[in-house]
Amino acid sequence: MKTKGALLRENNKPWEIEEIEIGDPQRSEIKIRMEAAGMCHSDHHLMTGGIPMAGFPILGGHEGAGVVEAVGEGVTDFEVGDHVVLSFIPSCGKCPSCKGGLANLCDFGAMLLQGEAVSDNTFRIHTAKGEPVYPMTLLGTFSPYMVVHEASAVKIDKDIPFEVAALCGCGIPTGYGSSTRSGDVRPGEDVAIVGVGGVGTAALQGAVISGARNVIAIDPVEWKREQAMKFGATHAFASVEEAAMSIAELTAGHMCHKVIVTVGEVHGKDVDTWMGITAKAGTCVLTGMGNMMESEVTLNLAMLTLLQKNLQGTIFGGANPKLDIPQLLSMYRMGKLNIEDMITRRYRLDQINEGYQDMLDGKNIRGVIRYTDADR
After folding, report:
1. 35: closest CA among 171, 160, 170, 176?
2. Single pTM value for the model
3. Model pLDDT for residues 150-163, shown as the tens digit of each residue
């Protein structure tokens, strides 16, 4: 079928809205009419080349929610009319990682940037000229229609707003899980959240819900610091350097048990700064993405050893998509998790470049594309 999509044809160039053609669902695949897509910083890394796909053009987008329109052969968990969230990490349930309780490290993840469908290793999306298109993380939610493997979809209740559901495809479980799973925040602990955009705000809520004593939000944007206080932060500072003395006073010199780093782009030179506000035997969780070509890190190895600190990487916040996404949405329904107020602005598909500029300018916690008939 013919539809539209937001494509990148080279690095550091704007998104272009083009006609694309999406094939029919093959074995183990479903076709989805998209209703909403989240605008995550990771898609901006596609533009800069920080996340290198296997080729161009690239169809962006890895957060989204919609309605199943057709199912391929062998699909048993979904039927036409189901509401679904697209999970940017597939979860096959059969590989050693999935069986070992690490669904966020599913073996399908090795194919996230290759562009070819995992069902048959062919391209499901093409441009109007017949060029193969590389969808972000096997998805490409910056299009009003998608065909994806069933491992990349999670069925949800039909009363959940699509904009809310979309954010649970990446940002909410990544941030929340960074605190509750990878960070293992415990009641009474002191926690710093470095960067309070969409992922950071979810991490902040995870720390609050886990019973953290002091929750310190650190972000250079004043408006984001104000929003962080509304989501439960106890203190807010513009930089780690500004926060360090106050953290020492708040914690009697012990510093933070957990430091969750959710900045838009991680640089190796900053790692020791984040470790500097991490307590003895504490954990610094690196959630934000760095450039895949960057490998140099500034880290005082003696202090890492002598103070028995932990530096923890995480993807998807350690979440199990099939389990955690419905659970987080049930928490939203019960008023325990505030997702709706994280949606700062809504955009049309053709406003995607405006939306990403707003993100870079610090105007959004999360921008969302809301699809209409005009987009289809």
Report:
1. 160
2. 0.95
3. 999 999 999 999 99
